[in-house]
Amino acid sequence: SAGLTAAAAKADDDGRPCVAYCGTGGAGNYVKMVHNGIEYADMQLIGESYAWLRRAGRSNEAVAETFARWNAPDHPLRLR
Fold this sequence. Notes:
single chain, mainly alpha, 3 helices
């Protein structure tokens, strides 16, 4: 089962599977729930940023350029 989990896991930049044993008694479910909460907060932030930028009068193209700058590898606010 561990081999199948490792094979199905997303790989990091070095090709290693992103998988870890988190403990017994639902610990993995808890970790996944926390991960999902963080991910949903990120998506909410992106959506609200889009809405604020549009309300400020920026065009879709200008918003896309802003998001592209924020997503640049060397930008401190990079959207990962």
